[in-house]
Amino acid sequence: MPTATPDDVKRYRENLQGEIDGVAVYLAMADGEKDPPLQELYRRLAETERRHGAVWEQRLKDAGVDISGMGPSWRARVLSWTARRLGAGVIAPTVAEQEGRSQKMYDDQPEAQGTSLPQDERSHARIFRELAGGKGLAGGELARIEGRHRSTGGNALRAAVLGASDGVLSNTSLIMGVAGAAVSNGAVVVAGLAGLLAGAFSMGLGEWLSVQSARELYTHQIRVEREELEAIPEEEEVELALIYQSKGVPEDQAHHLARQIVRGDLAVALDTLSREELGIDPEELGGSAYEAAFTSFLLFSSGAFVPLLPFLVGSGAPAIIASLVLAGLALFGVGAAITIVTGQSALRSGLRQVAFGLAAAAVTFGIGHLVGTVVR
């Protein structure tokens, strides 16, 4: 076996870290999942990641590298904590995105040639279809998994982080603009509270309208699909067969399966067509509009309160400096938190968020100072 180079060792460690994280996250998803078949699916995924990790463990041991201190990354620990307390479905979209980004990670690595690693990673990218089907899960259970992905509207974690980010950034800019005008501390507090409430209500209402509009649209689409299913079942059967063929099902089997579904129970046929043709989970319809509105209101408010806090207990330059420091820390935390989704460097993302936020605050402070001088 050729001697491993420093670059090889670095790559082996990165590979092993990814597999260690995968084991931790999938086991946490199994713990947070109430449905027994899905629990078993996540445990099988964890076992696959464990087998992958053993490959890189051996490579590192052969290279004389001590791996005894390696464990799950902070990102994996956050996802695991979330899955165990809020349920596997909350982080499923994030995990699916990560698997999609890494599906070709072993294709060009010579050590992975002749092993199942490249194929396994590509399978993980289709995680809730290919592997769940391999477990023999019922179609409804498989649809439930895929429905979770679609009903999140992209990613609940991303929405939460961005909601808090908007609160910190917008209210910091507003408060700095008012403080730059050298008005009284009371005016800064009033402006900060007004900005907090106005922004939170705007975010909440906007989120309610967005989700409610989506729900109404989905309901209408399902109603139209039902009418078509009742009026022209033959055309719906052909459409469903084409969908299955596009996913690799042989033509004869696709037509047979579509015929069984469309000519069977109407409710089952409508549920299947809603998911397969429209991409809609009839049980979720995009989630609760009121829950989305309340969550957005709360997240924005929590972020917007951060730069306001120093002015509630102090005034003048000390309060301005403290507000910027707290806002900077909050923005760094937001930037780092979003890397749970993106998989990028937490330090780089956090510092970038701080730079943008403080730049915006400096601009509004300068404009406020200029306007305040002119007015006075």
What does this molecule look like?
The chain has 376 residues and is an all-alpha fold. It is 81% helix and 0% strand. The protein contains 15 helices and no strands. α1 (6-32) runs parallel beside α3 (74-86), α4 packs across α5 and α6 packs antiparallel against α7 (139-151). Residues 128-155 have low confidence and may be disordered.
Write the layout of secondary structure elements.
Blueprint: H1 6-32, H2 36-62, H3 74-86, H4 88-101, H5 117-125, H6 127-135, H7 139-151, H8 156-180, H9 185-231, H10 233-246, H11 251-262, H12 266-278, H13 289-313, H14 316-342, H15 346-375
Task: Briefly characterize the structure.
With 376 residues, the protein is an all-alpha fold. Helices cover 81% and strands 0% of the residues.
What series of H and E elements makes up the topology? HHHHHHHHHHHHHHH
The tally of structural domains comes to: 2
Largest sheet: none
> Termini distance?
79 Å
The percent range for helix content is over 70%
> Approximately how much beta-strand content do the residues carry?
under 5%
So what's the overall shape?
flat
Taking Cα atoms only, what radius of gyration do you get, to the nearest Å? 26 Å
Q: What would the average pLDDT be, to the nearest integer?
A: 81
Number of helices: 15
Number of strands: 0
| Uncertain residue ranges | 128-155
Structural class estimated from helices and strands: mainly alpha
Question: What features would you highlight for this structure?
Answer:
single chain, 376 residues, mainly alpha, Ferritin, 15 helices
